[in-house]
Amino acid sequence: MIIRHLSLTNFRNYGRLELELSPGATLLYGQNAQGKTNLLEAIYYLATTRSPHAEHDHQLLHWDAGQAEEPVVVGRLVAQVSMAKAQERRLEMRLILERNGRSRHGGFRREALVDRRKVRLMDLLGNLRVVLFLPEDIQIITGSPGDRRRYMDITLCQIDPVYCRTLSQYNKVLEQRNALLRQIAEGSSSQDVLPIFTEKLVSMGSQIMARRAAFLRELARETQRVHYEMLTDGRETIRLQYLPRLGGHGTGMPDTADIVAQGEWLQVEGTEAAAIKKRLTATVHQAQAQDIARGATSVGPHRDDWRFLLNGRALSNYGSRGQQRTAVLALKMAEINWMAATTGDQPVLLLDEVVAELDARRRAALLQTVRTAHQTILTATDPGMFTREFLDNSTCLHVENGRVNLPVTNLP
Q1: Are 59 and 44 in contact (CB under 8 A)?
Q2: Of the candidates 21, 41, 94, 251, which lies 20 to 30 Å from 404 by C-alpha distance?
Q3: pLDDT digit string (tens) for 205-252?
Q4: Contact partners, residue 145, CB within 8 Å, separation at least 6
Q5: β-sheet bridge partners, residue 307
Q6: Nearest to 246 by CA among 301, 196, 323, 187
Q7: Strand order of the sheet with strand 305-310?
Q8: Residue 82: which H helix or E strand, with range?
Q9: Do 246 and 209 contact (CB within 8 A), yes or no?
C-alpha cells in the first residue's frame, strides 16, 4: 500500500499543499512547529477518520479558513492510494463549516468520499491502512484503560469492517440503555423495555469481546517474537493480557483474580461469541440493580482493559522507562507484521520523531523494519541522526512554515 499523492486545503498550517510521495522512506525534516507532524496527522486522519492530537475536528482547520456566510467546504484532505493487485483509490475527507445551524456539531460536519462518491465515514476505513508511532505512545502502557481500548478499536477498524459496525452499534445501544437506566432511577420510566436494550447490548458486546480476545492473542505472539528475538536478545519475555469486564458482579466489583480469569478464558482458550454471550447475559442481569442506581451500565466491552506483562509482572508498575519504550516498539513492529499478514498488503508507516527517543540498538531494529516496508514517512528535526546510507536511500524533504521543499540531496 502506497500513497502516491497527498493534497491538503486549509488543514492545520497548510493553506494549500500538493505533495507527490514515493515508495520507500520519506524523511520530513525541519524545526519544530513547521508542519511535519501535521502531514502525518492528515494521513492518519484519512485512514482512521480520527486525529491523534485534536479533541475536536474544527481544531484541524487552518486559522484563516471559514469566513463565508453560507455552508462551505473549508478544509479538504485527498490522497491517491495504490493498493495490492494494482488497485487505485482516491480518498477524500471534507471539513464543512455550517453557518445556518443545521449541523449538530457546533456548525461543523464532515463528508467522506471514495473515488469521488460520498460514503459513510465508516466506509472510508480500510481503504488506507497506517501504523502510527509517536513518542507519547508509551501511554498505551502507562495511560488509562480508555487509551488501550482506543488503540484496539482504531487498529481493528482499519482491517475489520464487521467489528467496526458492531462497535458503532454497540455504542449507540449503550447510550440508549444508560439514558433509560437514569430515567428508571428518577422514576420517569418503567423497566418494561430494559430487556430489549439489554439483549442488544449483550449480543453485540459478546461479538466485540470475542474479536478483541482473538486480536490480542494474535498480536501477543508477534509482539513476543519481536521483543524476544530482535530487541532483548532473549533476556526478557513479554505478554499481552486481556482484562475484560465480564464477571464477578454478584456481590460487588470484580477483583483482579476474577478479571484475569475471565481474560484467560477469552484470550487463551479462544472462546466463541455464543459462550461469551451466555456469561455476559448472567453478569449484566446480576448488575442490573446496581446499574439502575448508578444510571450507567457497569459491565461490557466499554469497560475492557489489557496490559503488558514483562517476565510475568505488570510492566506499568514494575518496568523501567527503557523497558516500557522497548515494549511499545515491539508492539508497533508487531502491529505492522500482523496487519500485513491479515490483509495481504503492508500498511503505510508513520513515525513522528521516534528515532530520537531510541538507543542505537532499538533504532537499528526499527530502521530495519523501515527498509523492508513499502512506504514509510518519518519526521525529525535533525537528519544527522540518520546514517548516510539511510539518507542516500530515502527521499528527504525540508518542511518550513507550512511549505514542503523539493527533494534535497546535499544533506550533511
Answers
A1: no
A2: 94
A3: 999 999 999 999 999 999 999 999 889 888 889 999 999 988 654 445
A4: 303, 304, 305
A5: 241
A6: 301
A7: 238-243, 305-310, 313-314
A8: strand 72-82
A9: yes
Q: How far is CA 284 from the centre of its chain?
A: 28
The partner residues of 378 in beta bridges, in order of sequence, read 27, 351
Domain ranges, ordered by start, for the chain: 2-129+367-404, 140-321
CATH H superfamily, domain 140-321:
RecF/RecN/SMC, N-terminal domain (1.20.1050.90)
Q: Which residue has the cell 460520498?
A: 118
CATH of 2-129+367-404, one of 3.50.50.60, 3.40.50.300, 3.40.50.2300, 3.40.50.11930: 3.40.50.300
Query: What are the strands, taking DSSP E only, across 101-245?
Result: 108-114, 117-119, 130-133, 238-243
Which pTM does this prediction carry?
A: 0.90
CB 141 within 8 A of CB 320: no
Tens digits of residue pLDDT in 304-361: 999 999 999 999 999 898 899 999 999 999 999 999 999 999 999 999 988 888 888 8
